[in-house]
Structures are given as C-alpha cells and as structure tokens.
Amino acid sequence: MKRIVVLGGGESGAGAAVLAHKKEFDVFLSDSSAIKPRYKEWLNKYGIRFEEGKHTEELILNADEVIKSPGIPDNAPLVVKIREKGIPVISEIEFAGRYTNAYTVCITGSNGKTTTTSLIYHMMQKAGLNVGLAGNIGNSFAYQVAECSYDYYVIELSSFQLDGIYNFKPDIAILLNITPDHLDRYDYKMQNYVESKFRITKNLSEDDCFIFCSDDSVTVEQLKRIVLRAQQLPFSQREKENQTAWLEDLDMFINYNNSDFSMSINDLSLKGKHNVYNSMAAGIAGHVLNIRKDVIRESLSDFQGVEHRLERVLTVRGVTYINDSKATNVNSAWYALESMTTPVVWIAGGVDKGNDYSELMELVKTKVKALICLGTDNSKLHAAFDGVVPVVVDALSAEEAVQQAYKLSAPGDTVLLSPACASFDLFDNYEDRGRKFKQAVRAL
C-alpha cells in the first residue's frame, strides 16, 4: 500500500489526509505545532494517524509521496531531507486534482485574488451552478473532493500552492497582476516569484482559457518568454485594441465570442481602479462559462466584498474607519491609499517581507496626515516616512493603534488599516489583526 505523509495539519493538510485515507493510502500526518481541534476531529473521525508538536523523521522519510502544506518553505531542513531521498513533494491542490473531473476556475496574482475568486463564486452560485470554493480561501480543495460532489470549483491559488503543482490543470486560469511579494521565500529574486505565479499556465491546452491583465508589464514580459497554447483573453484599462475587456470613459466592455457586453463602472459594487480590473477578470470568466449577461451584470453590481479588504467598519465622530488588514504587501496598500478621497490616518506595519516603500511616497505625501506604525520593529517605516508624514507614532496593539488614530483624526478623515506587511509579529494572521482592529473601533 502506498504511504502518503502529510506535512502540516491545518486546513489544506488535514483535508489532504482525509482524501488520501478515502483513496485507501496508508496515511500519516505530522505537524511541528499544535493541531486545531476542528482538524483533529477530521483525523480522528477517519482513524488517521498523526503527531503534533514534533516531526518524527523515521515516520516521514519512509513515505512514497509527501503532501506539504503551503506555509512550509521548500528550504525547511526536513523538506530538503525528503527531497534528498528522492521522495516527491506535492501540494494539496496537485493531489486533489487527481481525483476530480470537476471544471476548475483558478485565480492567482499578487493582489485582488480573494476578491476576484469570491466574486466569480458569487456569480456562479447566482447562475445556479453546483460550485465549491477552495484553495487559499474557503474549505480545503482535497476535503471537498473527498466529501462533496461539485461540478465546478473556484480556486484561489497562492504562489506557495502553485510551487507544488506539476500536472494539475485549470480550465480557466486567471492571473491578475504580479508585484513584489513574499520575496523572502524566493531568495529575494523577483524572477523566481514571477515563475512561480506563471506555473498556473504550465499545463494549459488549446481548449483552456488564460485571462490576464495586459496593463501589467511583468505579466506581458513573461508571456513573451513562454509558449502558451491556451486561448489568451487579456483585459485593460488603457488599451482597446485586441482586448477581451476594456474601458471607454466610464463604461466597461467585454467582447468574448461577439458577446457585446457593457456596463457602467458606476454600477459595479466594488469601487476603485483595482476593482475594475477584478470585475473585468470575473466578467470574462462569466462569459467563458456561458453565464447569462443579466446574471453577470447583477453579480458585478450586488457583490458584497470580502472581509478585511477595504471593509468599512464604522463612522465615529465623523471619522470613517476602514479595515484593509488583508493588504499584506506594498502594492495592496498602494491600491488602498489610491482609492482614498479624504485625509488619511494610516495604520501600517508588521513583518516586513523585503518591502520597498518608495512606490508609496507620492500617495503618502498627498494623502496621509498621520502614520501609526503597528509592529514590533517599525524601523523601516520610520526610515521611509519620518519627515514625510507630519506625525509618525508607534503602537503595539490594535487597541492602542485605534486610540492613537482617534486622537489624531478630525471629522471628515479616514482611518485606514492597510499594513503593507504580514501580521505574525503581533497577531495570529491578517484575519486576527482585522478582527481586533474592528473590535477596538466598536469599543470607541
């Protein structure tokens, strides 16, 4: 019997273990940290053997194949040992893809992927399709393949998940943009990260569709280098020629198979330039899926948005508080600041992933009246913005940051949590950071 070892007992790992068990493999799961009760329940329900708080090498290095959770880096000593023994290491997405014939719509990009994934899922549900939501959002893809019978999946893919893909193939692949992110995982080399994102196109055939932003210079540059067999469906806010979706004044047009679809960007539920891109990508996907135009239009106009992504929390004493905790890189924070129309008290900081703040400089100069650095080490933020922003202060908790913001803001201002950094110096994850921020705002 083939032995499968799963490294990591979170959503993706526990889900992969359940699917492997159902496919009658000899399964063992190992996590160096504590496993959450919810995932232990899954493992115990199926009698899957597991360990937590350690990795026992003799129980791992005898695997025929290892499924690695995306959070574990490739250069982790144990992963290096596994590879040296010639044991294949794959992702949960690769593993689950072997056991489903469902139609898959896969979305990647440095920014906007959760919003676009959620928007397409919303559209497909509205169209009455039997669809699951998976990957970096929603439930484990493998767990759903094991337990549900969906005809379609909408899957958000991070670069870490794509790194473990070899034969998996989307039917529709969407690449929104590529800007520097997670460079700490890619030897601080942008090209390594770019190639990781482009793995989404690796196995596409002539029958598949590749939807991409032709305004993104990094994407276009990389496209020149590779041979892509799939149908290419570009979208742009700058060009009209040869685009599948484009802008004319305030109208968004989509032309797929002579569909002739248009709607005003004022009718899109998601505001801001970056969300026009997200809506274009979703609209093209809807056309490829043969969803009716009225359903596409309705979905783009009534979608509620994603928690922790430019989420309006409350207006207190004339000041609007916005939770954009999901902005874990500089480019996300750029989009957030770009969409602000009032003076901003900006809360930023956390674990820096090799950030270059210079691209924010012009926006910060014109829009930010005060900066609150929320992190254990704010030296890079201070180096970039001391003397640029009139007031720069530090905070060590969401509550302290909100109290400071309350003092520094005036009616008509916006307090924006858009950290441009990862969260794990002071919080469990970006969701924890966002929830604590909202809690602190509600307590004002």
From TrEMBL:
Pathway info: Cell wall biogenesis; peptidoglycan biosynthesis
One Gene Ontology molecular-function label: ATP binding
Predominant location category: cytoplasm
Subcellular location per the Swiss-Prot or TrEMBL entry: Cytoplasm
EC number(s) given by UniProt: 6.3.2.9
One GO term (biological process): cell wall organization
Gene Ontology CC: cytoplasm
InterPro entries: Mur-like_cat_sf, Mur_ligase_C, Mur_ligase_C_dom_sf, Mur_ligase_cen, MurD
UniProt xrefs under Pfam families: Mur_ligase_C (PF02875), Mur_ligase_M (PF08245), MurD_N (PF21377)
Record-given protein name: UDP-N-acetylmuramoylalanine--D-glutamate ligase
Species assigned in the record: Tenuifilum thalassicum
Native organism taxonomy: Bacteria, Pseudomonadati, Bacteroidota, Bacteroidia, Bacteroidales
